[in-house]
Design goal:
There is one protein chain. About 30% of the residues lie in helices and about 30% in strands. By secondary structure, the chain is of the alpha+beta class. The protein folds into 2 domains: about 10-135, Aminopeptidase, CATH 3.40.630; about 145-310, Gcn5-related N-acetyltransferase (GNAT) (Aminopeptidase, 3-Layer(aba) Sandwich), CATH 3.40.630.30. The two termini are about 10 Å apart. It comes from Nocardioides zeae. InterPro entries: Acyl_CoA_acyltransferase, GNAT_dom. Keywords: Transferase. It holds the Pfam family Acetyltransf_1.
């Protein structure tokens, strides 16, 4: 049942919307600094096609974006929230008004739609209304500060394992494993199945190996590759490293270990190699995304010193058929 709390529903380009949004953002940033000082909220902007929803001390920009990226639905409804105070009634009213707009989208029940709200992971006061409306923690942006070294034993490969930088000759194997990783993530229901994943990933990997030379490592057993880790240095991670005040910050793109060798220490060795090189380069932190519902990724990355920074709460499709 929609909340009785009133909501101002304004066009993104309406007069005075920018000032109201800026005031809420500034107060939100102050509040969030006490919740998690590592989170750096970017000032939101409302385009002419967006909606600005305001209720009390809560405001949000509602947007719809089309995308051909592999990891997200082709049509994504997003809500960027700024809460000067954790007013659950006001937040619920804003959320319900947005969801009414989402439900009016004729494509909302299509599997290639999603509705997403990204929150600071420690901003727990805003979570319950999302869960009550069937949102799940689709992905976590996790962070690890690099001001301390990994234990020496983490950096020592197991007997018979060789760790080396990847080269262009590794592209076919890396591509196969990257396709496997995409298919694996799609099993959790938040990442769409993409038949064209191989073609898209081939271009991305080839470019990254050339551009970010020395930032992908491969582990070999008896001369055969069995695991890898890929990292974007800060200059290639500008799309995400503004999410934290720590700088410079890199991004761990993906990591893979052959299924029969998981829990053997290979993943730990590769991640530690990336951390050591990043620390030598003077980076302050490393970011990565992992599934919010994976029983493998969550405990592993926590054991490597990562902790949640932002959580993307999602419904996919954006609206359940018959809802």
């Amino acid at each position: 049942m929609p909340s009785p709390t009133p909501v101002d529903d304004l066009a993104g380009g309406a007069p005075d919307t920018s000032d109201r949004l800026t005031r809420l953002h500034d107060a939100h940033a102050v509040r969030l600094a006490a919740v998690d000082p590592l989170v750096r909220p970017a000032p939101p902007s409302a385009g002419e096609s967006d909606r600005l929803l305001l209720s009390g001390e809560v405001g949000a920009v509602a947007a719809v974006r089309e995308s051909d990226l592999l990891w997200v639905a082709r049509r994504a409804h997003t809500l960027t929230v700024r809460a000067a105070a954790p007013d659950v009634d006001a937040w619920t009213a804003v959320l319900d008004r947005w969801l009414a707009q989402v439900a009016a989208d004729p494509a909302a029940t299509d599997a290639e739609t999603s509705a997403t709200v990204a929150l600071a992971s420690r901003d727990v006061d805003l979570v319950a209304p999302l869960v009550a409306r069937h949102f799940g923690p689709a992905s976590i942006l996790a962070i690890r500060a690099l001001d301390r070294a990994d234990p020496d034993e983490w950096r020592r490969p197991p007997p018979g394992v060789r760790v080396r930088p990847a080269g262009s000759g590794d592209l076919p194997w890396l591509l196969d494993r990257s396709v496997d990783l995409h298919a694996w993530e799609s099993r959790f229901g938040y990442v769409p199945v993409r038949p064209e994943a191989r073609a898209a990933l081939e271009g991305e990997l080839g470019e990254a190996l050339e551009r970010d030379e020395g930032w992908t490592w491969v582990a070999e057993v008896d001369g055969a590759p069995v695991a890898f880790v890929q990292v974007n240095p800060p200059e290639a991670a500008g799309w995400v490293n503004g999410a934290t005040w720590l700088a410079p910050t890199g991004y761990l793109v993906q990591a893979y270990v052959a299924p029969d060798l998981r829990s053997s220490g290979l993943g730990r060795v590769l991640a530690a190699a990336a951390h050591a090189r990043a620390a030598e380069e003077g980076w302050a932190a490393m970011l990565l995304h992992h599934s919010g519902v994976s029983g493998w990724s969550t405990p592993f990355w926590a054991s490597m010193g990562y902790r949640p920074l932002l959580t993307s709460w999602m419904r996919r499709p954006a609206l359940r058929a018959g809802a």
